[in-house]
Amino acid sequence: MSDKTNPGHFFEDFRLGQRLVHATPRTVTEADVGLYIALTGSRFPLHCSDTFAGACGLEAAPLDDLLVFHIAFGKSVPDVSLNAVANLGYADGRFGAPVYPGDTLTTVSEVIGLKPSSGGATGVVWVRSHCVNQVDEPVVSWVRWVLVEKRDPDSLAPESVVPELPEAVPFAELQVPAGFEGAGYDCLLAGSPHLWEDYAVGERIDHRDAMTLEEAEHQLATRLYQNTARVHFDQLAAAGNRFGRRIVYGGHVISLARALSFNGLANACRIVAINGGRHVGPTFAGHTISAWSEVLDKGALPGRDDLGALRLRTVATKDRPCADFPDRAADGKPDPAVVLDLDYTVLMPRRG
Amino acid sequence: MSDKTNPGHFFEDFRLGQRLVHATPRTVTEADVGLYIALTGSRFPLHCSDTFAGACGLEAAPLDDLLVFHIAFGKSVPDVSLNAVANLGYADGRFGAPVYPGDTLTTVSEVIGLKPSSGGATGVVWVRSHCVNQVDEPVVSWVRWVLVEKRDPDSLAPESVVPELPEAVPFAELQVPAGFEGAGYDCLLAGSPHLWEDYAVGERIDHRDAMTLEEAEHQLATRLYQNTARVHFDQLAAAGNRFGRRIVYGGHVISLARALSFNGLANACRIVAINGGRHVGPTFAGHTISAWSEVLDKGALPGRDDLGALRLRTVATKDRPCADFPDRAADGKPDPAVVLDLDYTVLMPRRG
Amino acid sequence: MSDKTNPGHFFEDFRLGQRLVHATPRTVTEADVGLYIALTGSRFPLHCSDTFAGACGLEAAPLDDLLVFHIAFGKSVPDVSLNAVANLGYADGRFGAPVYPGDTLTTVSEVIGLKPSSGGATGVVWVRSHCVNQVDEPVVSWVRWVLVEKRDPDSLAPESVVPELPEAVPFAELQVPAGFEGAGYDCLLAGSPHLWEDYAVGERIDHRDAMTLEEAEHQLATRLYQNTARVHFDQLAAAGNRFGRRIVYGGHVISLARALSFNGLANACRIVAINGGRHVGPTFAGHTISAWSEVLDKGALPGRDDLGALRLRTVATKDRPCADFPDRAADGKPDPAVVLDLDYTVLMPRRG
């Protein structure tokens, strides 16, 4: 094998405190915005209309928050998870400055936890990743942990260090984009009269619509994010795995669930935190994705009566409508149709 | 079911004169232009080249007219046709100001006709939709009528009001974009020497080329237009319908037929009216679309010797080449391969 | 058949010295850049980041060189190869001015060779094509030759004229984009420490990753380039050909191979010449493309110590990993899995 090819990092290659500067810096453009609409059908007006965003005090329509996350995340794949057996979870995701077409995004990660598996052939790696724009403003940061193969199962294992992670980003630490004013938000154009006051903790919403996955679509999305995990692209190799299929990038399912959630959560205008998330099961081309959401918590924001925060849980299923909110069974095991369980926080305009 | 989810309007929900403001305002961009080329293969130079458009007196290449129509139309779907059993027809479509990247489009519809079906379970709704740009200039308006389900088959039916619709937009009422001059139109770069004078009423043209539909492609197109009709996206639900398949958005077939018509109608540089149109049959992924056109009428434009109008009929088929112009049989029934019968009017440069 | 439809040129229609001005001039945009990333997964930083390109002395990120080539090439198809039986080869491809979003590309071809086939029913046509931007700067030129059908097998054949073509574009004639400075190139952000000095003639690199072809993806790519060859789009017609399948545009395979080559050749930052290339075998949706490369030659550039040239050969295969560098057998015949054999020259930063 050539010494010039990147085989990805194995568990032994990670060191606590290690800093990984990820390739490739990326100038995001209106093309990302348009492709994201074409790939997900998202209709949140703040991300679709410069005039709508302008009325809310922003300079233009910022990129969809999840689009930013996927591009930021994709950069970390070649250095963090090329040899990952599994993506175990996300936590403490925080969105900062809005991202506009023309901004250039770069991601750096730091290793914050390591834990050899008991079997010896793998280990868990925790990284905190930071994505910044061209003037070094943080646009999104998050923690994720992955189960990574060892190069040599007999190599010496490092001491276990497991980071403490918050259950959720506190409402008081959420960042409202500079200049953003809920007063300018037009519910009529947004397509829904339901504002922050109208949602109750514990309320559940079936998003009704559904979307069938296609190979070409998830591949286009995942390549757009320059995510290089081969399980998404290489059917020849996939034919030999336990599924026999290319696995859809979990982030694509997150984006579909968020786009579907427009029907019921149209005014959830900005994602400000990803508190946690699990890809409960794999999805493949041909699966039809549905989604429902639950209001986990709601809170005011310090000093603001124009916007409030909702902590949401959005559950996505495959080949299973969500009218009856498929969830965990009595034994705590998720319904076999559930593929995603995402805990995140959004901003929503208040009546003021 | 949550009260926050939009179930779509049923027949009882429509009132004569009712005004529906549609979500989501949309800033169109170069991404829409590029995706439209990728999805249709359209080659009309006015929509592909800023220098070509500039030579014709326009500030830049305007968006393809059908791209504008589909985006404008898509907005009306959640409020008008989410519970439609069938899209029955279009009429009186009029194109106004050209749309450029950066413009923001909003659509409003007015209910102009209602007719309960004899069976009682459905009714026909006519709406006139108006799409405007960010400075409130009309960019396209049209009438369409749809067969919509009743929520309650026993509900009281309104009095029938059926609007009168013109057979075609009169040539004298067609709008030429401000500043547009046929004199600057370069036939050599456009790829065809055939101008307005060269087309005869009754002339038929087989467009020769053909395009096979893919699920990923029609879904990408339909989501780009933020058209939410679930029949296009949800295979799980479609498996239970009479076709067992996702139905391709009829507008995608219109766009493919128009793109194919470049071979024979390259200088039909701008659509100025959609006089009428019927989706004669459904299409599915795997169908190969071919098209032929007939010149229905031609006319001069008041005060202009640089441009003329052609009223065209373009017929699209599935899995059937068009060298012999498949059409209605002697009994008036369309050839079973015909899927689209579109009556529209274009501008074409004159020799002057 | 209508006289308004372009049936494509047959062998008899070509004359030595004939000049073909191709439709449609095309303003390239950020949409082309974004779609190209989504279609290929390319990660070369010079084409992805305005800040990275700016640090190297360019005004912005130029379009990927192959994207420019495909758009330029697509224009020539309706006039050169609509009736081609086979694309026989490329030679003497030279890249000139970088192309930026907003530039408008036009292609003109000249017939430089003709050779009737011995059988009589076909002939080989050589054309040199030139693509220029809106201020008439050459952006790319190349020679290709195609086997074209005769309209009438008994028509008189012209005298054979076979052009002399260079084996490779000499290093001294390669064009470095104005202002481009290797000194500003950041290897850390590019994701690879390997520079021009580190590559040895004869070195071979397996690019490891692989990409499975989908109908929707190759069709989107080929339509984006406005390449109208019906073999890529028309399954109804393809069902009757010897493969029974739509054939993937060879240029899409070139782009995938180049994108895959990032893993091992990340700093091959600009293609400056296409010396030769053969589509050794057809590819279809479902095939998984892998690639490996060999350094054929390396050379300094006159007066520059910041950049060097590498002449590369990239071989792509279908359904066959490249860890053992599949190539020609002892009898000179290519491995049956090989689909592409491309000889090209890149710029790469030097240590200086």
Name the features.
Thiol Ester Dehydrase, Chain A; alpha+beta; homotrimer; 352 residues
What does this structure look like?
The structure is a homotrimer of 352-residue chains. Chain A is of the alpha+beta class and 352 residues long. The first copy, chain A, has one domain (13-152, 167-349): Hotdog Thioesterase (Thiol Ester Dehydrase, Chain A, Roll). Chain A is built from 9 helices and 12 strands. In chain A, strands 1, 2, 3, 4, 5, 6, 7, 8, 9, 10, 11 and 12 form a 12-stranded antiparallel β-sheet that branches. In chain A, strand 5 (122-132) and strand 6 (138-149) form a beta hairpin. In chain A, helix 1 packs antiparallel against helix 6. Chains in contact: A-B, A-C, B-C. Chains A and C meet through strand 2, helix 1, helix 6 and helix 7 of A and helix 1, helix 2, helix 5, strand 7 and strand 8 of C.
Number of domains of chain A: 1
Beta-strand content of chain A: 25-35%
Number of strand segments of chain A: 12
What's the SSE pattern of chain A? EEHHHHEEEEHEEHHHHEEEE
* Assigned CATH architecture of chain A: Roll
Round the Cα radius of gyration of chain A to an integer and report it: 20 Å
Question: What is the molecular shape of chain A?
Answer: globular
CATH topology of chain A: Thiol Ester Dehydrase, Chain A
Unreliably modeled segments of chain A: none
Could you name the CATH class of chain A?
Alpha Beta
**What proportion of the residues of chain A is helical, as a percent range?**
10-25%
What can be said about the biggest beta sheet of chain A?
12 strands, antiparallel
Structural class of the helix and strand makeup of chain A?
alpha+beta
Distance between the termini of chain A: 64 Å
User: How many helices of chain A in DSSP terms?
Assistant: 9
Q: What is the chains' assembly state? A: homotrimer
CATH H level, superfamily name of chain A: Hotdog Thioesterase
- Average per-residue pLDDT of chain A, rounded, comes to 96
Greatest contact pair? A-B, 54 and 43 residues
